Amino acid sequence: MIMPWEKVKFCSVGDIKKKERIQELLACSGIWYQLKTTLPSWPHPADSAGIGTMAGVGNMRKTEQKNTYIFYVKKEDEEQARNLIKEA
User: Fold this and answer.
1) 20 pLDDT band (50/70/90 cuts)?
2) Where are the domains of the chain?
3) In this structure, is the dihedral angle defined by the CA atoms of residues 17, 63, 69 and 84, taken in order, positive or negative?
């Protein structure tokens, strides 16, 4: 098991195609990685421009919410992983 102090945040992406490409590159190179997915939070209806109306609620439904994919790698593999991604 990798301890938290043995890994570093490598990169974060919002595009699923980029996520899959990074996963493929790291796996093919034998680099250990951990993937964390963060889900977007929905804005509160009162935070929109339509305060006091239902306009804000309707706009929230139309807004596409994207996940963020965060990659972690071992500290010792960070430079190799960065070079690998640059070359791709």
Assistant:
1) very high
2) 14-31+77-88
3) positive
